[in-house]
């Protein structure tokens, strides 16, 4: 069964049980009150009917008492009004002798049948009255409510008063019919109302089920149900949509990662193939030269070229291993590093590569950060190498180191005076194995700036590329200072290196 049907049936069963309990309680409360009223009528008529029956049977009648048809209101009753009968039409009154025979009887009006009385032994001769129910003596006729009590003025005699319960039975029967009809009508109305309410309340769940089937078939862009409102169903929809957004984002990131991995493997294969092909070619040339007995090539030159290609391949492998370690995000070595010393050493190494190139360093004060000195040295060296490789010979390179106290960051900027960066270069400068067009291309594998970005991420910083005012490219490495120990060995080298 559906959830809606189960809830509707459960609510119907609970309502039915509640209505049955209410009907039974009402019936159980109303029926005794009707019988109690009938018993009151019998007791109220007991004295009058007893006197009349004693007079009729000429037993134990008090002197001065009057019969039903007689006059007078004095005698045993004193000066007050005489008792009267309040029995309903069709009632029965009788006087029983000690032998159990009826010696006198009276009908209030014409009646049908008489009550079936127990034996005298069962009736007994107690001094108190007895009330009980009895059927008609002939087997047909109404049921009776019977009052048996000792005759007040005739010892051994019994007064029997009986009144049919037909009116009470009819009233209780009508009450039962009204209760059943009202309960059925109310139950139908409540079931219809609950069905409509459940249909309206659970319709978002049905829509969610339909949307979930579409999502399970692969449509991760689809969302379930409404997302606003205070109800639990809407809150569930909002939670599911947030989860679906995370799943869709995770799948998108997985696809991007897989694409990058495939591109990375292709680039690595290409970059490693180039030096391996060169090494294989030079080795083949050397072998042919030796086998032919003639040395068409200088072995020293061939060996040097093999060494150069092997060194190139080694640098590529080293860069790949460094990127792999940075991608694994191990716990970073945190030590106090003076960036002014790191930047100065990198500038000195760059000046040794191209002694004739103007290289300006502006580092007026020591600047300390917490981090890995080797990785930071590699990042700054890669920025300088990128400037040397992609700018014309003799064009200046400017390096600046500043501590921005208001932001709590350390900024290393490297600016060259080359042709600058186009839109593609600005967007992909830090992608692995990406290299600019041939006007700015060198012999690298396109991993230098990727390492810079990875080192910046490792230290919780960032690196950006832009075109400087006046021409040229500018790279800015921004690092948080962290809690440093204070200045240690440092240098300040303004001017030309």
The largest beta-sheet arranges its strands as 11-12-10-9-7-13
What is the CATH domain class of the largest domain? Alpha Beta
State the order of secondary-structure elements, H for helix, E for strand.
HEEHEEEHHHEHEEHEEHHEEE
Number of domains: 3
- Write out the CATH superfamily name of the largest domain: Histidine kinase-like ATPase, C-terminal domain
What does the radius of gyration come to?
57 Å
Please state the overall shape, judged from the principal axes of the Cα atoms. Answer: rod-shaped
Describe the sheet with the most strands: 6 strands, mixed
Question: If helices are DSSP runs of H or I spanning 4 or more residues, what is the number of helices?
Answer: 9
Number of strands: 13
Strand content: 5-15%
Mean pLDDT: 77
CATH architecture type of the largest domain: 2-Layer Sandwich
What do we call the CATH topology of the largest domain? Heat Shock Protein 90
Query: What helical percentage do the residues reach?
Result: 40-55%
Chain oligomer state: single chain
N- and C-termini, Cα separation = 85 Å
Low-confidence stretches: 69-80, 438-442, 484-497
What does this protein structure show overall?
The protein folds into 3 domains: 20-171, PAS domain (Beta-Lactamase); 232-326, Signal transduction histidine kinase, dimerisation/phosphotransfer (DHp) domain (Helix Hairpins, Orthogonal Bundle); 334-496, Histidine kinase-like ATPase, C-terminal domain (Heat Shock Protein 90), CATH 3.30.565.10. The chain is 50% helix and 15% strand. The protein has 9 helices and 13 strands. The strands form 3 sheets. A 6-stranded mixed sheet has the order 11-12-10-9-7-13, covered by helices on one side. Residues 69-80, 438-442 and 484-497 have low confidence and may be disordered.
């Amino acid at each position: 069964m559906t959830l809606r049907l189960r809830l509707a049936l459960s609510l119907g069963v609970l309502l039915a049980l509640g209505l049955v309990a209410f009907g039974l309680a009402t019936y159980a409360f109303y029926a005794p009150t009707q019988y109690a009223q009938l018993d009151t009528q019998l007791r109220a008529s007991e004295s009058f009917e007893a006197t009349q029956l004693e007079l009729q049977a000429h037993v134990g009648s008090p002197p001065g008492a009057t019969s039903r048809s007689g006059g007078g209101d004095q005698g045993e009753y004193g000066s007050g009004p005489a008792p009267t009968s309040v029995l309903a039409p069709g009632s029965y009154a009788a006087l029983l002798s000690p032998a159990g025979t009826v010696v006198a009887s009276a009908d209030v009006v014409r009646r049908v049948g008489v009550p079936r009385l127990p034996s005298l032994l069962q009736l007994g001769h107690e001094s108190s009255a007895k009330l009980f129910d009895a059927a008609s003596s002939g087997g047909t006729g109404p049921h009776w409510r019977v009052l048996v009590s000792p005759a007040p003025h005739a010892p051994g005699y019994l007064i029997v008063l009986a009144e049919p319960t037909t009116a009470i039975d009819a009233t209780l029967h009508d009450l039962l019919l009204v209760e059943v009809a009202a309960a059925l009508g109310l139950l139908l109305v409540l079931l219809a109302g609950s069905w409509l309410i459940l249909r309206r309340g659970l319709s978002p769940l049905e829509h969610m089920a339909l949307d979930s089937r579409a999502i399970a078939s692969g449509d991760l862009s689809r969302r379930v149900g409404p997302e606003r409102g205070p109800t639990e169903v809407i809150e569930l929809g909002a939670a599911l949509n947030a989860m679906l957004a995370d799943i869709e984002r995770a799948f998108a990131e997985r696809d991007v990662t897989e694409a990058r991995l495939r591109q990375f493997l292709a680039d690595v294969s290409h970059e490693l193939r180039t030096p391996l092909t060169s090494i294989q070619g030079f080795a083949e040339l050397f072998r042919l030269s030796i086998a032919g007995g003639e040395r068409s090539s200088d072995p020293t030159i061939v060996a040097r070229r093999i060494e150069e290609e092997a060194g190139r391949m080694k640098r590529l492998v080293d860069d790949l291993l460094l990127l792999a370690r940075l991608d694994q995000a191990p716990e970073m070595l945190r030590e106090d590093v003076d960036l002014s010393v790191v930047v100065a050493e990198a500038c000195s190494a760059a000046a040794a590569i191209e002694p004739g190139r103007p290289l300006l360093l502006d580092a007026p004060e020591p600047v300390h950060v917490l981090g890995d000195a080797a990785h930071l040295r590699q990042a700054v060296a890669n920025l300088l190498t990128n400037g040397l490789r992609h700018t014309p010979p003799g064009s200046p390179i400017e390096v600046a180191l500043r501590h921005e106290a208001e932001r709590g960051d350390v900024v290393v900027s490297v600016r060259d005076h080359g042709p600058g960066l186009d839109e593609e270069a600005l967007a992909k400068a830090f992608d692995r194995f990406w290299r600019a067009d041939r006007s700015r291309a060198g012999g690298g594998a396109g991993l230098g700036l990727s390492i810079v970005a990875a080192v910046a991420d490792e230290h919780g910083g960032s690196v950006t590329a832009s075109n400087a005012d006046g021409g040229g490219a500018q790279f800015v490495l921004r690092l948080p200072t962290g809690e440093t120990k204070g200045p240690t060995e440092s240098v300040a080298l303004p001017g030309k290196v």
